[in-house]
Amino acid sequence: MASVDSSGSSVSGRLRSGDLLHAGLAVALLLGVWSVGGLEVSTGKVSTIEAMNGSTVLLPCTYSSCIGIKNLYFNWHYNDNGTMLKLCEAVIHTEGVEPKVHVYHERVDFVGSSKTNNISILLWNITFEDEGQYICFARNPKEKNRNHSATFTLLVVDQMKEIDNTLTTIIVSVVGGVIGLVIFVMVIKALVVHFLLKDDEKNKECLVSSSGNDNTENGLSGAKADNKGTPKA
């Protein structure tokens, strides 16, 4: 009996360990899918921009989720030396439904659309005090309240920096000169070939005419000889 109990317990232990292994693999797979297709927000490839004092700036932000959204919450904050100032917030109840955005800054306008997963804002008439970091945040309850954020940095300047195009101008000039030289050489070559062909045609015509004259003269001289050699009756 003891041997049977020990073998039965060992078999049940192996079964439990196998079940735990399968459960662990399933959880890992689910976590992997959730992390790959989870909510993400992005401010684009360029996360820093320079803008002139007094201009209007677009602060871009988009969101994406492979499994979709439901009651997606988003907001924008400005990092004022460590103090987070809320600029706007809203909830997108479902895909394609435009949100009712609450704006807390007099120079901020929401210009995004849920149809394009866009939650960008405009900042009007910027000043030097507006320089700093702007954080776009989103949270998706459909993904167990998974959240993500992205930072966009604004630099305010008096005037835009002039781009030195000297190197570009030199490169364009050199390339243009080389192309012009190639075209000039090809034109000269075509003219030379054209004149050479004309000279060849003239030489051929001269040879043909001279050979014809020689044959005519030979015929005339032969006829005169025949006339001289014929005896009189």
From TrEMBL:
Q: Does the keyword Nucleotide-binding apply?
A: no
SUPFAM superfamilies reported for this sequence? Immunoglobulin
Give start-end positions of Polar residues composition bias.
208-219
Q: What is its main location?
A: membrane
Q: Does the keyword Membrane apply?
A: yes
Q: Which GO cellular component terms are attached?
A: voltage-gated sodium channel complex
Q: What is this protein called?
A: Sodium voltage-gated channel beta subunit 4
Organism of provenance: Sparus aurata
**UniProt gene name:** SCN4B
